[in-house]
């Protein structure tokens, strides 16, 4: 079953830094999880003058996926490059593996292409947005 961001408890938002604002604005990635899925926010628009991400898109992965099957376009030779980029790659949590792939290959290759402007930082943190409020 496909999940949306509204199905996750945003009070449990985590990232690569303990400070979620740093995780999103500086590193451009944060995540939520439930029993079956991982839900990610990733930076989609970077403001050079501020030196931070200002817009975020989202994507999710089922906990039952195989990383090598999901990213079957990555060749064995390229997996070796990922492993040399991060030598503990296969020992990390799935969320940190996705973060590594995000850093190595970029958001489009990990989460797909999106032409949508994305959520603001405040919309990510609150788990709410203008479109969602209009539907309620």
Short description:
Helix content is 38%, strand content 21%. It has one domain (5-135).
What does this protein structure show overall?
This protein has a four-stranded antiparallel β-sheet with strand order 1-2-3-4. It has seven helices and four strands; from the N terminus they run E-H-E-E-E-H-H-H-H-H-H. 24% of the residues are buried. The protein is of the alpha+beta class and 136 residues long. It has helices at residues 20-27, 67-70, 76-85, 94-105, 107-111, 121-126, 130-135; strands spanning 14-15, 29-33, 37-47, 52-62. The chain has one domain.
Could you give the topology of this structure?
Layout: E1 14-15, H1 20-27, E2 29-33, E3 37-47, E4 52-62, H2 67-70, H3 76-85, H4 94-105, H5 107-111, H6 121-126, H7 130-135
Antiparallel strand pairs: 1-2, 2-3, 3-4
Distance between the termini: 22 Å
Mean pLDDT: 89
The major β-sheet equals: 4 strands, antiparallel
Number of strands: 4
Structure characteristics:
136 residues, alpha+beta, 4-stranded antiparallel sheet
